[in-house]
Amino acid sequence: MAFSNAEIGKYSKRLMDEDSINVVIRRIVDGEVDLRDDLIYKYKPFIKKEVANYIKQFHDIENTDEFSIGLLAFNEAIDCYNEGKSNNFFKFCSLVIKRRLNDYLKSNIKSKYNTVPFTYFENEESRSFEDIYCSNSTSQYEAYEIISELRDLKIKLKGFGITMNDLVITAPKHRDSKRLCINIAKELAGNRDLFYKLDKKGTFPKSELLKLVRVNKNTLERNRKFIIAAALIIGNGYDLLRNYIELDDEGGD
Asked: pLDDT tens across 26-67, in order?
């Protein structure tokens, strides 16, 4: 069954009351088990929307296996959520649902073809879900968000034949060179037409970019991989990964 905008609107108003949801979750964790089913039922529209947006299917969601995964993920989020480490339960819950759907779809691909088409979480897969989400030493939301951003970036870079190891090797070492490359990447990310070619078409518009930034073409080619990665990070709003490419002090030496 499709869900209406009115239905989404009703739960959207409820989502704004973070204090209430935090109180309910604390009561569930403290042993009021009946509240768990009530909470899941109340926010079924939220789960349906998250699942629908992920699988790009907007009809008959409740009869899909993915919706069942979403329900289980919502339940799991209740157990793992720590309001002291994540200031928004629904953002955290959304990430857990996406992770579980990703795991489910990846498992189906693996069982069908005995292989996985993409390399997900190259180093992160050795860490359990509980290590990432329920750790007392790090922010639940930030821990998953950065892994999610990294996963998406790896997929986009693969289209250019670029690996994370390539970036480690080819990243500019000199501060001024890095600043120049980041500025070029910002120009590329900020130009709608050029960024569309990069992000959606998978092509690096070198000639057009040279007209925009007016740098030596050898500089552009030598730093091509880093500029592509930086532009994808900036243009796609990967804010946590952006912290790793930006200079600590833009005005420093």
From this structure: 888 888 878 888 888 889 999 999 999 888 887 888 888 888
Q: What is the pLDDT of residue 141?
A: 54
CB burial readout 158-191, b (16+ within 10 A) else e: eebebeeeebeeebbeeeeebebbbebbebbbeb
- What whole-number distance in Å separates Cα of residue 214 and Cα of residue 152? 30
Q: Evaluate whether 91 touches 141 at the Cβ level (below 8 Å).
A: yes
Of 42-46, 135-139, 141-145, 157-161, the poorest mean pLDDT is in: 135-139
3-state class of 137 per DSSP?
coil
**Cα–Cα distance for residue pair 25/76, rounded to 1 Å:** 12
- Return all residues near 232 (Cβ < 8 A) that are at least 6 apart: 153, 156, 157, 189, 198, 199, 238
Please, is 226 exposed, middle or buried when counting C-beta atoms within 10 Å of its C-beta (0-12, 13-18, 19+)?
buried
pTM above 0.70, yes or no: no
Cβ-contact 181, 187 below 8 angstroms = no
What is the rounded distance in angstroms from the CA atom of residue 173 to the CA atom of residue 119? 27
55 is written with which tokens?
């699988």
CA distance 208 to 220: 12
Contact 140, 86 (CB under 8 A): yes
